[in-house]
Design goal:
single chain; alpha/beta; Rossmann fold; 6 strands; globular
């Protein structure tokens, strides 16, 4: 698959790192764009991203990336984490940087666009922007981890969100814990 991964300034850098980890050996073409605030949050939360070999990084200020045009075929775009400000700008169609332009392209071309906000609580503006991007074709997946897999580390907890992202992309997540598919969950 040809994928665009992006992150904006919301907390939750571990989710992006775990997504990169799960995509590492899948033979995917991965393009990465980080907002300046995403870089700052990544530094604060995990020190820095460990990028798999072959990931192609793009500046948020550039519009020369192939996925900035609908003529380039890509399978999906994930913004993880996605700030509510970014969702608002996508809803408004501002396209003022590469992340926003790419999101606009994925929406207009009816390609898979997954937005994973982590912020809570939402105000009415957030909720309306979520409705707008959903009506435009985006998949909004709040970064809400599950606990029925009994995660024992932050990585395992973050994986519960990443598995759902992989499911939406149509990428196999062989280690995903599925509700009621594991006999250990039947203990009551």
């Amino acid at each position: 698959m040809r994928l665009v991964l992006a992150a904006t300034g919301a907390s939750g850098s571990i989710y992006l790192q775990r997504l990169l980890h799960h995509l590492e050996n899948g033979g995917h073409e991965i393009h990465l764009v980080l907002s300046p605030y995403a870089k700052q949050v990544i530094h604060e939360e995990i020190g820095g991203l460990q990028l798999p070999e072959g990931v192609i990084e793009h500046s948020e200020k550039s519009m020369n990336a192939p996925f900035a045009s609908g003529s380039a075929l890509f399978n999906g775009m994930v913004i993880l984490p996605c700030s509510m400000g970014t969702i608002g700008r996508i809803a408004a169609g501002t396209s003022e940087n590469l992340i926003l332009r790419a999101a606009d392209v994925f929406l207009k071309e009816r390609r898979k666009l997954i937005l994973a906000p982590r912020e809570t609580p939402w105000n009415l503006i957030h909720a309306r922007n979520i409705v707008t991007v959903t009506e435009a074709g985006a998949i909004v997946m709040p970064a809400s981890p599950s606990f029925y897999s009994h995660p024992k580390s932050f990585d395992e907890l973050a994986d519960t969100v990443v598995w759902r992202v992989l499911d939406q992309l149509g990428i196999d997540a062989p280690n995903a814990c599925r509700w009621r598919e594991d006999s250990s969950l039947d203990q009551e």
